[in-house]
Amino acid sequence: MIAHTGLVLGRWMRASYRQPALIAFTLVQPAIWLLLFGQLFQGVVRLPGFGDSSYIAFLTPGIVMMTALMTSGWSGTSFVQDMERGVMDRMLASPVSRGGLMAGQLLSNATTTVIQTILVFAIGIAAGARYDGGLVGYLVTVVASMLVGTAFGSLSNAVALLTRQQEALIGISQFVSLPLTFMSSIMIDPTVAPHWVNVAARFNPVDWATIAARQSLAATPDWSSVWRHCGYLLAFTLIVGWLSTRAFRTYQRSV
């Protein structure tokens, strides 16, 4: 399985490198979000709950998670394209590991997520964001973003395997990602949001990742909160991964 995962990963990475426009969009998009939202909402730091940090410092970890969510939401489109071209059927007729097919594609998404995370931090720091959490804080943020990407990439793959339609996948992806973004602390502190948003955020995996990242980057991190939210996120990722595997088996039985 490990060998096949590496081969599938190489396939998806080569496919990405052959699409320079896609690479440019993937890298520029988080930069636009960070700079646009950073300027648009910079005045909200005058509200209670933000402390002494600048808004760009508050926003950067949130944009990291938002980028991981949005990018992974399109993960299943590659599976749909393989189905339409008959590549998926040829893969399933070969001795390649079924787990390797899924893991290789998810690792490709994780690689993209890591690159985007580094880019967002570079832009945030250039714009004035400063963090006292050191290397550990950055590593926790990268791991949290990879878990978000893996979880919602698995969910996107499951939807693709069950619906087999680009239109349905795109619609469901938007339906899920936008509410998860705005019912979280990505752009605003939950204490100044309506009560129902605070309640919803407690069950939001994207908010778990954002809280873990911000806490780990703080000068005095609340490590119990960091590990608790990372644990929630890991459990969610494992559950969604299991559901994605079940969807793969359902697709296999139907072809």
From TrEMBL:
Membrane topology, as annotated: Multi-pass membrane protein
Q: Name one GO molecular function term.
A: ABC-type transporter activity
Task: Name a Pfam family for this protein.
Answer: ABC2_membrane
Q: Where's it found, cell-wise? A: Cell membrane; Membrane
- The UniProt transmembrane annotation reads 21-41, 53-80, 101-129, 135-156, 168-188, 226-244
InterPro entries under this entry?
ABC2_TM, ABC2_TM_bact-type, ABC_2_transport, Nod_factor_ABC_transporter
Entry keyword set: Antibiotic resistance, Cell membrane, Membrane, Transmembrane, Transmembrane helix, Transport
Question: What GO cellular component term, any one, is given?
Answer: ATP-binding cassette (ABC) transporter complex
Its GO biological process annotations read: response to antibiotic
The family classification in the record reads: Belongs to the ABC-2 integral membrane protein family.
Protein's name in the database: Transport permease protein
